[in-house]
Amino acid sequence: MKNPVVVVWTSLLPFAAVSAVAAATATFSPVGPATVPPGTNVTFDITVAVETLAGFDTADVLIGSNDAANLDFTYSVAWTGAFANVTSPAFDNGVYAQDVFVGGNNAAAVGSSLLLGTITINTTGMALGSHEVSIDNTLDGVSTLGLSGTPEGLLGVGLFSLQDPSCSPPDCGDADACTNDFCLGGVCQHANHCGCDLPTVTALGPRYLGVTPAAEAGLVALQVRGTTGAVSCVSKYVQANCLGGSNVGAICSANADCPGGLCNNTGTLGTTAVYRTPAEWGTVAVRSEVIAPLTAYDVRTDCGTTPGATLSNPVTATTWKWGDTTGNVVVNFTDITNIVTAFQSGFTAQRTLESVDLSGAGCMPNRLVNFQDVSAAVGAFQSKPFLFCSPPCP
């Protein structure tokens, strides 16, 4: 193994922005659980890789988090063995609340992909909920992999969450294969799931989930639960309401409930379990004031006759980052442009309503695109956080 030469990094902020068109990737692989109680360290191995270059001989990497109490970084043996000059880790550079600058350079390419090292996040004092640690050239202007002076901007994110430790045991396991065990408000819940098929669940944007029940016989309801932090108490059902007719706005299960109108899947969330056939549900774009960005939600099929008694296993999906309209975990001018273009020219398969509808009255996405959504994206680009109009959990 080469003896690394420590390079003293003196270019503290402001960083000089690097013009890099292609995007190299940083992959954050959890070492141990990524969902833990507060005060438990979370660790990721970080592997970096070029996109179009044949390899890389230089690396400048800023790893940061606006949530972490503290960060620690250790180079991999592969990294210190490959680079003749290894950058001494420099902490607290001011781009994030907690960050560290690392990297190295070599006379020849060290390959197209290499394990950079391990980042450890101290979660002491952090709030319950979803958090991230990231490498983002579009934010810091310095994170790049380069070959012979040609750079690629480096992007990647590691997601982790802090859970409610109040249940005992924390996973509420009861060794019954037919119960779905979970902690809700500090009380263990054990819902029967035998007989219900799994739904298909995807994130459609920062404020939307796409839910499709399996094509099973009979009527089903769709239950959505928050998993951590600010939404840990949320347990609601997808709604359908009368569109037109004498019962306009009323909760419905079929067109027969809406004389002169139609039973329409509004995709909002409420406390009433609405039972429809899978064909009537189709794929529902679920939206709510309690659907928050970069937050994991469990969705279950309820196929029983008593709401909550017979549930499928959960299918989990995490919404996109606040202001992100493409699902790449990066917020930049492309996202703002997407919303403006949608307002001017409409939607496409890549620029959907669900990806650009960020807000509305009472923090409920309103299935419209207007200046309120543009303003929200600009705020997200400026690192302004998403805020609930009213916190859903005490």
Give the structural class: mainly beta
Strand proportion = 35-45%
Beta strand count: 23
Give the % helix: 10-25%
Q: What name does CATH use for the topology of the largest domain?
A: Immunoglobulin-like
Shape: globular
Q: Quick check: average pLDDT?
A: 88
The secondary-structure element order is EEEEEEHEEEEEHEEEEEEEEEHEEEHHH
Identify low-pLDDT runs: 1-21
Taken together, the total number of domains comes to 2
Radius of gyration: 24 Å
N-to-C CA distance: 54 Å
CATH architecture assignment of the largest domain: Sandwich
CATH class of the largest domain: Mainly Beta
**Count of DSSP H/I helices:** 6
* Sheet having the most strands: 13 strands, mixed
Map the helices and strands.
Layout: E1 5-7, E2 23-30, E3 35-36, E4 42-49, E5 58-65, E6 70-75, H1 77-82, E7 85-87, E8 90-91, E9 98-105, E10 113-122, E11 129-136, H2 137-140, E12 144-147, E13 150-162, E14 179-184, E15 187-192, E16 200-203, E17 208-212, E18 221-226, E19 235-243, E20 262-270, H3 278-281, E21 284-287, E22 296-302, E23 315-318, H4 333-345, H5 353-356, H6 371-381
Parallel strand pairs: 1-7, 2-13, 3-13
Antiparallel strand pairs: 2-4, 4-10, 5-9, 5-12, 6-10, 7-9, 8-9, 11-13, 12-13, 14-15, 16-17, 17-21, 18-19, 18-22, 19-20, 22-23
Quick summary of this structure?
This protein is mainly beta. It is 11% helix and 36% strand. It is built from 6 helices and 23 strands.
